[in-house]
Each structure stands twice: as structure tokens, then as C-alpha cells.
Amino acid sequence: MAGLMAGFGHYTHAVVRGIPASLAKEALRSSQSEVNLTKAQKEHEAYVEVLRTRLGLEVVELPADESLPDCVFVEDAAVVCGDTALITRPGAESRRRETEVMKGALKDLSLNIVEMTDENATLDGGDVLFTGREFFVGLSKRTNQRGAEILADAFKDYAVSTVPVLDGLHLKSFCSMGGPGLIVIGSSEPAQKALKIMQQMSDHRYDKLTVPDDLAANCIYMNLPNKGHVLLHCTPDEFPESAKVFEKLKDHMLIPVSNMEKVKVDGALTCCSVLINKKGNI
């Protein structure tokens, strides 16, 4: 079994995409909340600003496409690990064309492109948790077994295990990595069941950080030169109890990032960027 990937959490580039006005009315959602488009756009600008200015990543900004209301959620269109980018086949048919611009951007970053062309396969990047040692893939409304098999084929160096997602949209709707060997997990019964399955399937013993709110378990971990461990997580305004839990991570630079509007259309923090580690300068 592979040990921890060298440079886990180290990123140099982020691919993001603008928010189309169509997001407010037409983006897919599990609740009927009203989205304030101006607030959503401000929130997204602040998120991109953190990546670019606070963390010093090279940010590739793709233009919004009004015919693709969900296109800001770039994570679902590609899974990048090392020098390989798997262009996915999103589970929602209305989102399939989102991969076209993403593929072009990742090609321009000189990544090895693998495309999921099998019409029986579906995979959203939001269902893919890479721990630095292995992949867990959520089998959800959006991702199926065939999609998980193609991912395993694209990233042969790592074990791939599947986890049923019975509640919530994606696997990462209730978990994410908080550091090397640390899984941040929601406290709901479905989240805890999924964690148990991941623990049973893995040869590695992961530490866990349990937060009261499932959605707050979605955060972004990075390990950056001159900054060390960095965690982008929910704000106290959104989830006060969960925000307190993150304060236990004394070795991390903690950056609360607001996600109040995008969460109304099932968007979490990881959804809005594809992170890449380019070893040499492009």
C-alpha cells in the first residue's frame, strides 16, 4: 500500500470559474432556498482572493457560462492527482458540458488528461476524497461503480475504495481532509456510518475531527511553503459550534471563508476550486 504522497496538500495553482446569473434560479438544489446572486458573487470573489492573495496560488479563472448554471462548482468536472487529470462524466446530465472548458484549462497546465468516455459511467469530483494515501469514492445519486472503476484505472498508484452515500449529495458533503491522516467528519448518523466504512476498508488508521454540522466538515487543507498547515473552513456566522471545533487545530493557519449563498445550491468550499501542484514553472 502506498505511503503518504510526498507533498500532500502542497498546491501551486487553482482553477476556478465565475458565477453565472443563471445560478440563482436554475442551479440544481436539494432545498428551495432563494439565492442572493450579488451576495453569492461577492462570496466567491472573497474565496478566490484568499487563494490568490492570502495563499499566493496562481489562479486560473475560467469565465462563467450562462447556459451552465452550476459551472462555478468546478470540482465535479475533474479529479487531479499528481500530474494526471481525470475529466469526469458528471452525474447530472445538465452539467456534462462543464468539463469542456475545464479540460482545456488543465491541458494548458500540461497535465496528462484522461477522459471518462464510458456512457455507463458517472462521477462527480465532490464524491472523491483523496487522503494522500488512497482514494475513497462515494457511490451517490451522482457517482456510480463504473465511474469509481475508471478513476481507479486512472490513478493506479493508489487503492480506491467505494463508500455508499445514502444521505446528502456527495461524499464530501459531510467529510474532507483536515491534514495528513486527519479526516474531518460531520456528526450525523449517515456521516459516522460512512466514516466507519472508510476505516474498515483502509490499512491506515486515520485520526478524526468530528464537527456538529455535516456541511461544516467540508473544508480545504493545504500545506504551503512559508505557511505550513492551512485550513479554509466555515465561518462562525454559518456554523458557530463547528467553527469552535476547528480552533483545536493549533498547528494550522485557520482561515474562515463564508459560503452562505452557495450552500443553498448544495455548493461547499471544496466545490469551487480544482487544486494543482505544478512542480516546475510552466
Automatic annotation (TrEMBL):
Q: Which Pfam families match?
A: DDAH_eukar
- Active-site residues, Swiss-Prot/TrEMBL: H170 (proton donor), C271 (nucleophile)
Q: Name one GO molecular function term.
A: amino acid binding
GO BP terms: namely: arginine metabolic process; citrulline metabolic process; positive regulation of nitric oxide biosynthetic process
Gene Ontology CC: mitochondrion
InterPro entries named among the record's database cross-references: DDAH-like (IPR033199)
Gene3D superfamilies reported for this sequence: L-arginine/glycine Amidinotransferase, Chain A
Residues engaged in binding substrate:
L28, D70, E75, D76, R95, R142, V265
Q: Which UniProt keywords apply?
A: Hydrolase
Q: What does the similarity note say?
A: Belongs to the DDAH family.
* Name this protein carries in UniProt: Dimethylarginine dimethylaminohydrolase 1
